[in-house]
Amino acid sequence: MTLQGKTAIVTGSNSGIGLGVARELARAGADVVLNSFTDRPEDHALAAALAAEFGVQVRYIRADMSNGADCRALIETAGGCDILVNNAGIQHVAPVDQFPVEKWDAVIAINLSSAFHTTAAALPAMRARGWGRVVNIASAHGLTASPFKSAYVAAKHGIVGLTKTVALETAEEPITCNAICPGYVLTPLVEAQIPDQMKTHGMSREDVIRKVMLERQPSRQFATVEQLGGTVVFLCSPAAEQITGTTISVDGGWTAL
Q1: What residue stretch is flagged as signal peptide (predicted)?
Q2: Is residue 150 part of a domain?
Q3: Is residue 1's pLDDT more than 90?
Q4: Nearest CA among 92, 185, 169 for reference residue 123
Q5: Can you say whether the dihedral through the CA atoms of 134, 236, 63, 126 is positive or negative?
Q6: CA distance 129 to 123
Q7: Are 38 and 63 in contact (CB under 8 A)?
Q8: Of 61, 59, 174, 57, which is closest to residue 126 (Cα–Cα)?
Q9: Strand partners of residue 35
Q10: If 0-12 CB within 10 Å is exposed, 13-18 middle and 19+ buried, where does residue 94 land?
Q11: Are the beta carbons of 188 and 227 closer than 8 angstroms?
Q12: What residues make up the domain containing 128?
């Protein structure tokens, strides 16, 4: 499997899941555009390091995914988009009647509306090139719900719906659109939470992971960013040409419950 000659844009990709996906796409030979809302020397250094490691072109383009114009400008500035991975996301936890309006607006904008804007901007170029892959990083919360996460759950359910609509609109073209629904993923952000959870619950690291953090994940194991990246690469492969408009759960059995 090679993605040489393809350009992949991954939103929210200077850390965590997005970076893991970008690495696997680069490993498969794709040129990659990294993105986040910052514009620091380390962001561009990260792109240079990936380029050197995998022998592909990697650029970093700043764009604020809460801003529709920025989302569309990201696609235009990249100058080409064969693979679009909509990954950018934030979270806020609060009861519905206490959920800050500004937090609701931000979660919906970054987790849902950004994917609408980037996809709308990318489809014409995919059609012109005669090939395209849109992969939306949804969540187990795109298929089920948890209390106190109303904006996140609403946005991720919306991403699943958007995925199906785009797939139907491109069904007779060489373009596919699918969503990946991860459960809990071991990212640096999650890793950093473990020591505090150990103190709070008076538990060992293993017990915190199994009994607290992964309570709803039957495998009692985190998914990894490499696994998610591998799933994205698979969806870009010839084996996945007839996979469109669906969700792939990488959740250790969470949504089987």
Answers
A1: none
A2: yes
A3: no
A4: 169
A5: negative
A6: 10
A7: no
A8: 174
A9: 61
A10: middle
A11: no
A12: 7-184+223-250
**Same domain for 110 and 162?**
yes
pLDDT digits (tens, 9 = 90+) for 74-117: 999 999 999 999 999 999 999 999 999 999 999 999 999 999 99
Active-site residue identified among 54, 60, 104, 152: 152
Same domain, 16 and 119: yes
| 70 lies in some domain | yes
Q: How far apart are CA 133 and CA 172, in angstroms?
A: 14
184: annotated active-site residue = no
**Owner of token pair 């952000």:** 189
What gap in Å lies between CA 182 and CA 228, rounded to an integer? 8
pLDDT value at residue 174: 98
Q: How far apart are the C-alpha atoms of 101 and 226, rounded to whole Å?
A: 35
69-76 CB contacts, 8 Å cutoff, 24+ apart: 71/11, 71/113, 71/114, 71/117, 71/118, 71/121, 72/117, 72/118, 72/120, 72/121, 74/9, 74/11, 74/33, 74/35, 74/118, 74/121, 75/9, 75/118, 75/121, 75/122, 75/125, 76/121
What was the pLDDT predicted at 91?
94
**The pair of three-digit structure tokens given for residue 98, joined into one six-digit string:** 């206490």
Whether 24 and 62 map to the same domain: the answer is yes
Q: How many domains does the chain have?
A: 2
